[in-house]
Amino acid sequence: MKLIYIAFVCAWLAGCGGEEFQDLRDFVKNSGADMRGKIPPPPEVKLYEPFAYINDMNLTDPFKPRKPEVSSAGRRGENEPDMNRPKEALEEFPLESLKMVGYVLKAKVGHAVIRAPDKKLYQVKVGNYVGMNFGLIQKLSGTEITIKEVVQDSTGDWSERISSLQLVDKE
After folding, report:
1. Three-state DSSP class for 163?
2. How far, in Å, are 75, 78, 132 from residue 72 at the CA level?
3. Residues facing residue 6 across a β-bridge
4. CB of 90 within 8 A of CB of 116?
5. Pairing with 68, which of 20, 83, 156, 171 sits 20 to 30 Å away (CA)?
6. In sequence order, which residues have a C-beta less than 8 Å from that of residue 91 and are 6 or more positions away?
7. How far, in Å, CA of 171 to CA of 169, rounded?
8. How far apart are CA 163 and CA 109, in angstroms?
9. In the chain, what are the domains?
10. Nearest-CA neighbor of 125 among 114, 111, 135, 115?
């Protein structure tokens, strides 16, 4: 009897679950049937044509370094320093390593006191050279030295720049 009862319940459960979600299954199965995408054809590949810069003399070769155009006001070598001038003692040190530690008046002429990396003190005045970039002292005050340096750029031209050394309070 129990066996008949169990067989009856299993048959009843099998009959209930068969068609419940069939409409959902059909929708999912047919939803992508009409959707076919079109992929555009690949673009036409053009053949590479090499270009020789030697053939056309009006074009500059992009692989050779170019120098900027020099205006009529500025000429190449205009700011070039005198390479034959004897070097002064403070020209062997980079400007960043020099420190202004004092200011002295001697015969109504101002002198700055500079400490170099070799721990020696040097007195300089307007017209002396300091640093490794041909730095000429332009102006002195009790708190600052103004220096005109001449530096060479990558094209070989010389240009001027203004630098300064400030008085340091303590070391």
Report:
1. strand
2. 7, 12, 30
3. none
4. yes
5. 83
6. 129, 130, 131, 132, 134, 135
7. 7
8. 22
9. 90-166 (2.30.30.830)
10. 111
Answer whether 95's CB lies under 8 Å from 147's CB. Answer: yes
pLDDT tens sequence across 68-99: 555 444 445 677 888 889 999 999 999 999 99
CA distances from 56 to 61, 117, 145 (A): 10, 56, 53
d(C-alpha 162, C-alpha 147), whole Å: 6
Tens digits of residue pLDDT in 33-65? 777 777 888 999 999 888 776 655 677 666 776
CA distance 104 to 141: 10
Helices (H), the chain: 2-16, 22-30
Residue type, 149: E
Can you read off the two tokens belonging to residue 1?
A: 């009897």
| Partner residues linked to 100 by β-bridges | 114, 167
User: Burial level of 130, CB count in 10 A (0-12/13-18/19+)?
Assistant: buried
Phi, psi of 110 (to 5 degrees): -75, 135
